[in-house]
TrEMBL record:
Keywords: Amino-acid biosynthesis, Aromatic amino acid biosynthesis, Cytoplasm, Transferase
GO CC term (a single one): cytoplasm
Active site (UniProt): D326 (proton acceptor)
Reaction it catalyzes: 3-phosphoshikimate + phosphoenolpyruvate = 5-O-(1-carboxyvinyl)-3-phosphoshikimate + phosphate
Location of the protein in the cell: Cytoplasm
One function term, GO molecular function aspect: 3-phosphoshikimate 1-carboxyvinyltransferase activity
BP terms from Gene Ontology: amino acid biosynthetic process; aromatic amino acid family biosynthetic process; chorismate biosynthetic process
Recorded superkingdom: Bacteria
Similarity comment text for this entry: Belongs to the EPSP synthase family.
Keyword Glycosyltransferase on entry: no
SUPFAM superfamilies, per the entry: EPT/RTPC-like (SSF55205)
Pathway: Metabolic intermediate biosynthesis; chorismate biosynthesis; chorismate from D-erythrose 4-phosphate and phosphoenolpyruvate: step 6/7
The protein's name: 3-phosphoshikimate 1-carboxyvinyltransferase
């Protein structure tokens, strides 16, 4: 799973508009959680639609190393025989979480509540990312952490033998930090309480309930208060993973930008804490419609219809950031094609993603002849009104979403767009190029 050789790619305008129906791979957030919860539930959890991207495969390997039986029974079909909360065993070797911040941070929550010693590392991107945001609150359980300078990986953890419940007000809007605290709380007696000022994705809360835990959520003047009753008996439960809205974002924006296109992305997760991009695109003038809206596996899902549209620049408020935190690179591409200026506000968290996504996104635009500025934590994009020059090479900095956003831009630009390395796309969206080429009816995206 290590990427020794970079894979340069390029994208050019397709010879025909994008057309057709497609499904995108399973939701990454839900896939990680399904494997972890399956591993600490009593009984056998059957998962359908699991994302078989490298990030999630790291979680599968880690749960095996911690004693769970994890087996692939078919495409996207996985079976996890759980050990019960508190039942994980000490791993014999270092846990390598690859490129995945979600895998690393959620797992640290779980490990905190188990009396075991573990060492965790990741790839060069993950080893640069902050872990103190989880080790700080998790230390209150009694777990001990030894980290590199700045709280970075590799780190060692000795989980608490008698973990204490956490009561924590999140200093940043982060579903990963919230989830790490809740996962630690599964092994502690009493009530774990996490307060978030801005609501973040609630897949952990939803899935905990699905596995039988008691989780209460209350909106208060202090923020959203999530409480979990400790030491529940988690019972194995089937999980149906919907398509990832963060992956659907790429074909949807491509369809909006390439004249004459009409694309239907089927079975997309539409959890309201994930759909900020679609709200923003509508404000920009996109006619996105939802067909076949339904509830599947406890999450709202639907088919999204996207057609080419003339877009206009908008102001994206900072409060919307948690509901579209992974979508700013591709929104910036849509903004580059729009008429007028788009100002995206409150993007500080983008600096600590797989890359510094704020500067990587600005650089992506600049390399392709689009004017963009960073002002404090805001990104300002000067739209071209549909005439993106292109012709640049984008540095992806080990970041799948920068790579995919750049390639989508190439489909809509006057000159092809190149990326230095498309290999990391496999972390979240295996088959991305083939899928996009299927819509284009030819090889619009391929090796450079
Ligand atoms: C995720 C939460 C987000 C998001 C990441 C997945 C999750 O990170 O960027 O891709 O599954 O909980 P933060 O919670 O750190 O913002």
């Amino acid at each position: 799973m290590a990427h020794s050789e970079p894979r340069p790619f390029r994208a050019a305008a397709p010879s025909a508009p994008l057309a057709g129906r497609l499904g995108v791979p399973g939701d990454k957030s839900i896939s990680h959680r399904a494997l972890m919860f399956g591993a600490i539930a009593v009984g056998t959890t059957e998962i359908a639609g699991l994302l078989e991207g490298e990030d999630v495969l790291r979680t599968a390997a880690a749960m095996r190393a911690l004693g769970a039986e994890v087996e692939r029974t078919g495409p996207g079909a996985w079976r996890v025989a759980g050990r019960g909360a508190g039942g994980l065993v000490e791993p014999a070797d270092v846990l390598d979480m690859g490129n995945s911040g979600t895998a690393a941070r959620l797992l640290l929550g779980l490990l905190s509540g188990h009396p075991l010693f573990a060492v965790m590392t990741g790839d060069a991107s993950l080893r640069r990312r902050p872990m103190k945001r989880v080790t700080d609150p998790l230390s209150a359980t009694g777990a001990q952490f030894w980290t590199r300078e700045g709280g970075r990986l590799p780190l060692a953890v000795r989980g608490a033998a008698d973990p204490l419940p956490i009561d924590y007000v999140l200093p940043v809007a982060s579903a990963q930090v919230k989830s790490a605290c809740l996962l630690a709380g599964l092994c502690a007696p009493g009530t774990t309480r996490v307060v978030e000022r801005e609501p973040t994705r609630d897949h952990t809360e939803n899935m905990l309930r699905h596995f039988g835990a008691t989780v209460a959520v209350e909106d208060t003047p202090e923020g959203r208060v999530v409480t979990l009753e400790g030491q529940p008996e988690l019972a194995a439960a089937p999980v149906l993973v919907p398509g990832d809205p963060s992956s659907a974002a790429f074909p949807i924006v491509a369809a909006l930008l390439v004249p004459g296109s009409r694309v239907v992305v089927e079975n997309v997760g539409l959890n309201p804490l994930r759909t900020g991009l679609f709200t923003t695109l509508r404000e920009m003038g996109a006619a996105l419609s939802i067909e076949n809206a339904r509830i599947a596996g406890g999450e709202p899902v639907g088919d999204i219809v996207a057609e080419h549209a003339e877009l206009r620049g908008v102001e994206v408020p900072p409060g919307r950031a948690p509901s579209m935190i992974d979508e700013y690179p591709v929104l910036a591409v849509a903004a580059a094609a729009a008429r007028g200026v788009t100002r995206m506000r409150g993007l500080a968290e983008l600096r600590v993603k797989e890359s510094d996504r704020l500067s990587a996104t600005a650089a992506l635009l600049a390399a392709n002849g689009v004017r963009a500025e960073i002002e404090g934590d805001d990104l300002i994009v000067h739209g071209t009104g549909g005439a993106i020059p292109g012709g640049g090479t984008v540095e992806t900095h080990m970041d799948h979403r920068i790579a995919m956003a750049a390639l989508v831009m190439g489909l809509a630009a006057r000159a092809p767009v190149a990326v230095d390395d498309a290999a990391f796309i496999d972390t979240s969206f295996p088959g991305f190029a083939a899928l996009m080429n299927g819509l284009a009816g030819g090889a619009a995206i391929g090796p450079a």
